[in-house]
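Open question from group meeting: does this chain pack into something compact, or does most of it stay loose? Before anyone orders reagents, we agreed to write out a predicted structure and look at it together. Recording both the input and the output here so the notebook holds the full record.
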Amino acid sequence: MDQILEGMALHLVTNSSIKSKPELHRTATFLYGVSALSMMGVTFISPVFPLMALEIGMTHVDMANMIAWFTFPALIFIPLWGFIADRFQRKIVLSISLLLFGICGSAIFFTDNMQTILWLRFAQGIGVSGIMPMSGTIIGDMFSKNKDLEVGAQGLRVVSINLAKFFYPIAGGLLGGIAWNLPFLFFFIAVPAGLYTIKYMPEMGAKEKEEKINSQVYFRLLGKALLNWSVLISYSVVFMRFFIKYGVYTFLPLMVLKYGMSAGEAGLVFSMMSLGLASVATQVKRLSKSRVPMEYIVLSGMILIGVVSIGFSIATSFISFLIVGLLYGIMEGFAAGLETSLLTQNTSRDIRAGIVSIGSWIRNLGKTISPLFFLYVSSNPEVLYFLSEIPLLNLDMSLSAGPDNGFILTGILGAMAGILIVLLIVITWILKKLIASNTS
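Structure tokens returned:
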């Protein structure tokens, strides 16, 4: 993994302006590693949950809580981290977040009390809620004067995240085979990373920061930025992307059970989604240079995510699931690779962390709401009745909501959300033209 991240960082330094600034090279490499490190929170340890059930009596409710107690703090602390980072220093937030993530995560190695483990997961969740938005924000600060490099750097950050998602379940499962608690010890890697951040990492973009900006001015600037179309598009897409993605996560295991596939085969389907996303994310710099504006590329990705997710309801074999998973990841790459750049390139340094943090908060909101919504639909199929009247969808209400109908629903919602945002942009553009013509 380190060699892969190092190679990605070297790709960035082909520009002569960065070659002359080795601190950018080091910081870029470090931030890719930190982004990948934050993915350990779920994908690295989930393979040992069955072992924890055998060794320490973990229940199904405890398994759900291991995720919920880790993700919930983000809904509270992400906006706070963003405010602190904008008012003070990015590296302070990143350092504290890494230390919390590492210390609390590795402490689980030393206990088998489930309640203690859950509280440590909660504290670890506070830490991870500051890592992801800060890594994206700092990259935005680093390359604020060069949009092409910024897009490429954000894309490579997405690549590092998805490579981590691909390898972590394998590594976590192998370590868990030795001892159920061994994977948790590896969270300690975040502790030296946090110490390195506070001592050696430079505060990027400090010269761009306005002097003596008070809280009132800060929130006024933040509110103004929230009305920017590029920011609104990014927020809308990131919410729907994770809302649909976690709908897929909800129904895909049910489809796997329906066709008798093994847990390993299901894991490969998820891995194909990550590989597809990573393959497109490596090319976002080229995409950003195309004649199509980034906003429309992101929206197109959102619509195609919805369309392809319907393919899971058509797939009937392991190979067909792999193909749909790969296509889903590719379509997601068009949105994921550019959505952070839409935020960082359309905001000033003074509010950039706040804007990116709000995006992270919206992402976690989508993650939280999605399983609840789709499980509600599964238990109340009558809410889908109106969709059964559409001949092209071929919805069979006798299946209840089921995984088949569930994937159709995720697809409809994803595609409709993207189309609706496009229509709003077109209407706004027409209104601006009419107002401009009338005033002239």
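Observations to bring back to the group:
The CA atoms of residues 149 and 417 lie 30 Å apart.
The two ends are 59 Å apart (CA to CA).
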